[in-house]
Amino acid sequence: MSATTLRDKQEVFRDELVMRDRIAALLGDGPKTVPELAAALGRPSHEVLAWVAAMRRYGRVEERGKANDEGYFAYALKA
Amino acid sequence: MADAAKLAVVRGPSTSALGLQPSYDVLVVGGGIAGMESALTLGDMGYKVLLVEKEASVGGKMILLSKVFPTLDCASCISTPKMAATSHHPNITTLLYSEIEGISRDDGGLFRVRLRRKPTFVDWAACTGCGECEIVCTVALPDEFNADLVARRATHIAFPQAVPKKAVVDRFGTSPCSFTCPAGVKAHGYVSLVRAGKYDEAFRLHMEDAPLPGSLSRACYAPCEGECTRGTLEGTVPIRAIKRFMVDRYYAAHPIPEYGPSAATRAERVAVVGSGPAGLSAAYHLARRGYPVTVFEAAPLAGGMLRYAIPAYRLPKDVVDRDILNVTALGVELRTGTPVGSLAALRADGFAAAYLATGTMEGYALGVPGEDLDGVMDCMGFLKRVNGGEPLDLKGKTVMVVGGGNSAIDPARMAVRLGAAKVVIQYRRSRTEMPAHDWEIEAALEEGVELQVLHTPVRFLGEGGRLTAVESLTMRLGEPDASGRRAPIPVEGSETRVPVDLVVLAIGLKPSTGSFASEVELNRNGTVKVDAETLQTSLSHVFAGGDAVTGPSMIVQAIGQGKRAAFYIDRFLRGEALAGVRFDEPLPVVDKAEVVARVANITPRPAAPRHERPVAERLAAMAEVELPVSEDEARQGAARCLDCGGCSECHQCVQACPAHAFHFEMREEKAEELVRSVIVSTGFKLFDGRKKPLLGYGRFPNVINAMEMDRLLAPTRPYNTVLRPSDGKAPDNIAYVLCTGSRDCTVDHRLCSRVCCMYSLKQAQLILGALPLADVTIYYMDIRAFGKGYEEFFQQARGMGVTFVKGKVAQVDERPNGNLTVTYEDIEGGGGKRQMEHDLVVLSVGLLPNRDALQLFPGGQLEADPNSYVREVDEDLEPGRTSIPGVFVAGTASAARDIPDTVLHAGAAAAQTAAYLKRMEEGR
C-alpha cells in the first residue's frame, strides 16, 4: 500500500494560495528543489510540486539550470 | 461573442408546418477535430453551419496532445489552423460555452434545438486574452486542460492556444456565505483574498457593500458562518474572525480613510434620519452615488445601536468611530443632537428625499405594578446611559434583568462590570427556549451572571418611590404556542419575593417612529409600512429601513436595508421606475451537498481557534472580550474555505482587466434553433484508471495516465519538463501498461481502443527525446500497429531502445522512495510472475463511448450500438448515418478511432449530410 496519503487535488491546489508566500520566503534564501522545500515546510513533496508548478505558471518562480544528479530542478523566485 | 447575435430565438410551437424557416442547414454538436472537419467541409460547400461546443474554445481533445503519430507533427500546429478556420469561416457560426438541452425532429423533418448558453461573465468582444485576470484571481481549481496536474484559476483562459482566446469565470452559483448575507457582503470574496494574503484588497471588497466592517467584525451574528458548507463537516470557516483580522490590520495602517469626498454629481439633497447602521449605510451608498447627504441624529453621538446598545466589551467605541469615518469621509454631513420631528420640515428645508432609520431605541414595558419605581429601567435606557458614558455605580447591588433574548444578556454582563454583587437573568421559560445565542448565555454565566428560568416578575415593590424587591411567580411549560416554543404557565401560589436594587426590563424593543405617525403609514407594531422590495413608504419621497421597519434585527440586516434604500432612492430621484426593478439578483445559491461531493475525500482540519480574554481580566475593565486571531490563524482559517461557488466574487479580475471586460451580471441564456440536419461529434471519454485499483492510479502519485503524460510532454506542459508528480524528479525509468481499461471484461470494456499502442509508442519516443538517458518499458499483450506507417513507427521505437515486455501487469505497489514495483506475467521470458522497479508508471488508458451523445435526443431515438457508441445503421456503405434520418455521427462518437480515421470519418459524415440536404432541397 501507499506510503503517501493523497489528498484530493482540489484541496491541495487550494492550499497553494496560502503556501505560496511561505515558499517564496524560503526561496528568498536561495534556489531550492521540491524535496528541499518539502522538508522545510513539513509537507508532502507531491503537494509542494503542485504549489511550485502553479507558482511557476503564474510567474512567481522559475527553474534554475538543469536537474541535479538526483534528477531534481532547483526553483528560484522569478526576477 | 459576436456570433451570439446571429442566433434567432424561436419561441412557441414553431414547426416547419407553421412556415418557419430553419436558421441553419446543419447543427454540429461538438467542436473537436471531427466536428471542425465536418463543419468546415459543409461550410466550404456553402451550407450554413451552427457548431455548438460546451467548452470555451474549439479544439476538443486533439489540442491537448503533444504530438500525433506516426508523423510526430505538433498537435497544436495542425489543430490551430483548423480551429481558426472554423472560428472565422463565413458559413460557420460557432456557439461556444454552450450546451444542447435537447433536439427533437418535427413532422416536416426539421430539428428543433434547445440551447443553453452558459454565462462567461466576460465580454468576449472586449477581452484581449491578456491573462491579467488569471494572475490576480484568488481561487485555484484543477486545470482540466492539463489533466488536473496543476492548478488554474476560477477566472481563466481555457488554454494558451484557445480559439478564441478569451477568459471565462467559473461560477457554479453564489456561495452560501455570500448568498445569506443580508448586506450582500461577499464573504467568500474577502475570505479568499485573506487566504491569498491580499488583506487591503479584502477590506476594500467589503467596502463595496458595507461601510462598517469594524462593527460587523465584532458584533455581527455572522449568518454567513451559519450557512458555511464547511460547517456541515468538521467546523465552519471563521469568517467573522477573518474579517476582524483584516479590519484591525487595515485600521491600524489607515487611521483615516484612503479616500476623500465623492464627487457631488447629483444636486438633490437627501436626509437620513438616524445614524445607526441602517442610516450610515444608506448615507454611504447615496454619497457614493454622488448625492449630498445629511444624517440627523437625535443623540449626542452617532452610531445608534452600535454606539448605545452594544457594550464596549463587545464593540469598542473607537472601532465605531473609525467605521463612521468611512461614511463621513465621503462628505456626508453628520448632525448629532438634532432630532427630526417632521418629514414635512425636511421637505421644506430642501431635501428631495428622506430615509427613516430611527431604529428601536426604546424598550417595551412589562405592564406589572411598580414598573414606574426608581430602579426599574428598560434595557435601552440602561445601555444608553452606560454606553453614553453616564456614571452608574452598581457596587454591591443586586440587579435583575428580565428577559431571555440577547438584549437581556448585554445589560446583565454590563452590570457585572459595573460592580454588581449579584446579577440574575430571570426568564419565564426554560433555557432551551431562550432566544439569546447559547454562546452569549455561556459567556454571561462564566462571568458570574445567574440564570433564573421558569420565573416571571408580577410586581415590583418599593419604598419611597425606590425599588426594593421583586415579587415573582414560578412558571411551568405547557404546549407550544404560536412561536413554536412551549408556553409558560403560572404556577398558582408560587409567589416569592427577593430584594433587588435594580431591574432592567429586556423583553423587547419598540420602533422609534412615533414622531412620524401622522406623516407616514405605520404598522400596528409601530414599524414603518414600506414596500418590501423598494423600502418606499406611503410618502413617495420617503423611504425607511433598518429596525424601524423590521423590528429588532441584526446589524448586518440594517446595513443591507440602507444599501437597498440607497439604490431605490437613487432611482426615485432620477425619475426611474421602481416597480419591477430588482435591487440585487445574485446567482442561485450552490447546493452544499454538491460542494461536498466535488471533493473525493475532504481532509479534516483543526478547528479554527477562538481567543478570549480571561474572565478576571475582562471584568477588571471594559476590555474587549474577544481577542483577534493571528495572521497565520486568519490565513489557515481562510484555507478551510471550500470555494463553494467557484469564483469568490473577490473582483480582482474586474480591477485588473485593462479592457473592462468583466460583467458579473451576465446570466444563462436559453435559445431555440431550427436546423435541417444534425451531426453528432461529441467525441469519446477516457477510461478512469481508478477502476483498476491494483494498478494504483489515484493512490500513488507516480502512477499517471497517458493523457497526463501527453500533457507533460506538450510545449504547454504543467511543469518545466517531464517530472514525476511525487516529488518533481525527472524520471529515468518509465513503464507503460497497455490495454488499461481496454480488451478487459472485468471493467465491461471488451473493445480494443485502437490508439493506445500507438500513442504509447509516440510518448516513448518523445520521452527518449526529452530524457535521453531514461529507460522506457512497455508492458503489452500485443502491439497493434495496423495503419499506414505504424509498423515502421513501432520499429523506430524499438530502434531507439524502448524495451517491450509481453505480459499483463497485475499490480503496482509503491516503495518508500516513491518508486513503483510492477508485478507482471512474463510471457516471453519463460512465463511466471516477475517484478520490476520503475520511477514512473503510465497507464495507457482506453477510449470509452461518450454516452452524453445519446441524451441529445430525449426519448432515445438516437440508437446506440452494443458498446454504447452512437450506432451507424450501415457502417460499411453509409458511414455516419444514424438511426434518425437527417442525423449523422462523426469521429469517435461512433467508435474509437485515431486522428486520421477521425478526420476521414468526419468527411464522410459531412458528405452524407450534404447528400441528405440536397435530397431535401429536391424533395426526394
Task: Write a structural description.
The complex is a heterodimer of chains A (79) and B (924). With 79 residues, chain A is an alpha+beta fold. Chain A has one domain: Orthogonal Bundle (Arc Repressor Mutant, subunit A). Chain A has helices at residues 9-27, 34-41, 45-57; strands at 32-33, 61-64, 74-77. The longest helix of chain A has 19 residues, at 9-27. Chain A is globular and about 30 Å long. The mean pLDDT of chain A is 93. Chain B has 924 residues and is an alpha/beta fold. Chain B is 27% helix and 21% strand. In chain B, strands 1, 2, 5, 6, 7, 30 and 41 form a 7-stranded mixed β-sheet that branches. Chain B is elongated, with a radius of gyration of 35 Å. The chains are: A alpha+beta (79), B alpha/beta (924). At the A-B interface, helix 1, helix 2 and helix 3 of A face strand 8, strand 9 and helix 21 of B.
Query: Runs of chain B with pLDDT <50, length 5+?
Result: 1-14
Distance between the termini of chain B: 38 Å
Instruction: Please provide the count of β strands of chain A.
Output: 3
* Approximate strand percentage of chain A: 5-15%
Q: H/E element string of chain A?
A: HEHHEE
Identify the CATH class of chain A. Mainly Alpha
Our Rg estimate of chain B from Cα atoms comes to 35 Å
The average pLDDT score of chain B comes to 94
Task: Report the principal-axis shape of chain B.
Answer: elongated
Q: What characterizes the major β-sheet of chain A?
A: 3 strands, antiparallel
Give the number of DSSP strands of chain B: 41
Largest interface: A-B, 39 and 52 residues
Taking pLDDT < 50 over at least 5 consecutive residues as the criterion, the unreliable ranges of chain A are: none
Number of helices of chain A: 3
Total number of helices of chain B = 26
The name of the CATH superfamily of chain A reads Winged helix-like DNA-binding domain superfamily/Winged helix DNA-binding domain
Hey, roughly how much beta strand do the residues of chain B contain? 15-25%
Residues in helices of chain B, as a percent range: 25-40%
CATH topology of chain A: Arc Repressor Mutant, subunit A
| Structural domain count of chain A | 1
